[in-house]
Write a structure and sequence with these properties.
The structure is a single chain. Helix content is 20%, strand content 44%. The protein has two helices and seven strands. It is elongated and about 85 Å long. The chain is of the alpha+beta class.
Length: 179
């Protein structure tokens, strides 16, 4: 059983997505361990009406130390980019809330779940990055193709000119000091 659980959740926006950061600390009563770490999971769940649920788990590594009373004192932090939680956006509804839970293994080796927050909106799990317009994408691809084709031509002409087979460009002749 967890005592003195403190969970601080922070949601920040980047240019591409939303980042969820969770910091937890507390004591596990009667949890005997010699390990310096314990494993917890962050669970993201969205009800999709009726019986279907979308649920994803992310590992959270937690540092733990044993106290004089025999309890395990723990602290851990996890950062998750929400755009990658539900990779297949099929069925994900932007108007529904997503609950975040903390899962851990108790002394009886059973998974226990503690709800941490329920205020994440489904819309936060979609990419914030917008695709550029069609014309801009076509121009960028055309420039990429042109540069891909011309680069080997420029390299070969420079190599041939250095061997004396071809002519250097006027700018290259000035740079090398040739007339």
């Amino acid at each position: 059983m967890i005592k003195n659980l403190q969970a601080v959740a922070d949601v920040t926006k980047t240019d591409r997505s939303v980042v969820y950061e969770l910091t937890v600390s507390g004591k596990l009563k009667g949890y005997k361990t010699t390990a310096a770490r314990m494993h917890m999971l962050l669970s993201f769940v969205q009800d999709i009406g009726g019986q279907k649920k979308k649920q994803r788990y992310y590992p959270m590594f937690v540092e733990c130390t044993m106290t004089k009373e025999g309890d395990c004192k723990f602290i851990g932090t996890s950062k998750v980019e929400l755009a990658y939680v539900f990779a297949d956006k099929k069925g994900l509804q932007s108007d529904r809330n997503v609950s975040v839970s903390l899962c851990y293994v108790d002394q009886n080796m059973q998974w226990q779940e503690i709800e941490v927050s329920r205020n994440l909106r489904g819309e936060q799990f979609f990419d914030l990055y917008q695709q550029p317009r069609v014309l801009i994408r076509i121009v960028k691809r055309a420039l990429f193709g042109l540069c891909t084709v011309l680069l080997p031509v420029w390299l070969c002409s420079g190599w041939l000119a250095s061997k004396g087979i071809g002519k250097l460009s006027p700018r290259a002749q000035k740079a090398s000091g040739e007339n």
